[in-house]
Amino acid sequence: MSTDAPISRFPVPELSDLPEDLRTRIALVQEKAGFVPNVFLALAHRPEEFRAFLAYHDALMDRPGGLTKAEREMIVVATSAANDCLYCVVAHGAILRVRAKNPQIADQVAVNYAKADITPRQRAMLDFAVKVATRSQAVGAEDHATLAAQGFSPDDIWDIASITALFALSNRIASVADLRPNDEFYAMGR
Q1: What is the three-state SS of 33-99?
Q2: What is the mean pLDDT of residues 124-148?
Q3: N or C, where is the chain less crowded by C-beta within 10 Å?
Q4: pLDDT tens per residue, range 64-123
Q5: CB atoms within 10 A of CB 9
Q6: Residue 179 to residues 38, 64, 113: CA-CA distances in angstroms?
Q7: With the C-alpha atoms ordered 139, 165, 179, 104, is the resulting torsion angle positive or negative?
Q8: pLDDT at residue 187 above 50?
């Protein structure tokens, strides 16, 4: 079911009015996904901030390391659920289903990752990420030791915390903007 509700409370520019580099980036995403995610349109009204967000996103989500792409999306889904961010849970839940090749995993992680069909290593990762998202001041040496015991390197721990932090920003902007998920996300990977 499609709706004519606005995708954001803030101005949404026309694609033709955007700088060339952002039009190119959006066109690549549209070609791959088959649609333009609403977050791209909503963030594009502030081009410099959008570029900075994309650069940090790509540095965290596309870098090689000890976390799989699906695990990175698990972090986004679990912490976005903890932050009550509808847009990010729906959008990144879709990406998680695709990357994990599992139509149920995103719903499980979003509702209660502690009962999700994930490994003990992934559960420890999400315990840490949700703690960073909700009580970062309480993170201590024991949290790092728990992750190290599950095989996470210091760089992996940095990645978990950084992904959580970036998406805390995204969650808050999406919530304040009342950003509406694209209808297409709901069916992806199912």
Answers
A1: HCCCCHHHHHHCCCHHHHHHHHHHHHHHHCCCCCCCHHHHHHHHHHHHHHCCCHHHHHHHHHHHHHH
A2: 98
A3: N
A4: 999 999 999 999 999 999 999 999 999 999 999 999 999 999 999 999 999 999 999 999
A5: 11
A6: 7, 30, 24
A7: negative
A8: yes
Closest CA to 87 of 30, 39, 134: 39
Percentage of residues in the chain having pLDDT higher than 70: 98
- Report the chain's C-alpha Rg in angstroms: 17
Q: Which two tokens stand for residue 10?
A: 């803030």
In whole angstroms, give the CA distance from residue 105 to residue 88: 15
What pLDDT, on a 0 to 100 scale, did the predictor assign at position 3?
Answer: 59
> How buried is residue 125: exposed, middle or buried, by Cβ count under 10 Å (0-12/13-18/19+)?
buried
155 contact partners, CB below 8 Å, separation of at least 6: 65, 66
Write the single-letter amino acid at 106.
Answer: A
How far is it, in rounded angstroms, from Cα 156 to Cα 1? 40
- Is 11 strand, coil or helix? coil
Does residue 1 surpass a pLDDT of 60?
Answer: no
